Amino acid sequence: MSAARRLVPALAAGTLFGVGLTISGMTDPQRVRGFLDLFGRWDPTLAFVMGGAVLVMAIAWRLRRRMGHPMFAERFVLPGRSDIDARLILGSALFGIGWGLAGLCPGPAIASLALAPVAVLPFLAAMLAGMAIDRLLPRFVSPTMLTGDA
């Protein structure tokens, strides 16, 4: 399969995703913080965006079962694990803390590069540092410390 056949659909999907995030206002950290402010001036917009995403994904998941293979790949690549371990919980907690503090997660941060690149650079730097730490951490920490196994 050619690189263009793999990359063009990914670029189109990413562009559509970024445009959707921008139109829905999810690139605005204040909107996200408003959603997380349950006891103040709560903004339910993010709940509707999440609901729409879940609906689209539920339909796509059912369609996937009927397809022999993806349109732009030879096979579906699905997660091989479904367990919940310490590493997943820690990563989820760090993601949530970062999302609450910054009002951004990776998708909206990358989409924000087109609108306010200077404002989003500190978040992107922290995100890239976190990705690097994730890659390097297993080299310095025993696997049992990450999984919680004795």
How would you describe this protein?
This protein is mainly α. It has 7 helices and no strands. The termini are far apart. The model has no long low-confidence stretch (mean pLDDT 85).
Write a concise synopsis of the structure shown.
70% of the residues lie in helices and 0% in strands. With 150 residues, it is mainly alpha-helical.
Reconstruct the topology from this structure.
Blueprint: H1 3-24, H2 29-36, H3 45-66, H4 86-102, H5 106-112, H6 117-140, H7 143-147
Helix pairs in contact: 1-5, 2-4, 5-6
How many helices?
Answer: 7
Task: Categorize the overall geometry.
Answer: globular
Query: How would you characterize the largest beta sheet?
Result: none
> Residue share in helices?
over 70%
Report the sheet-strand fraction.
under 5%
Using brief descriptors, characterize the structure shown:
mainly alpha; globular; single chain
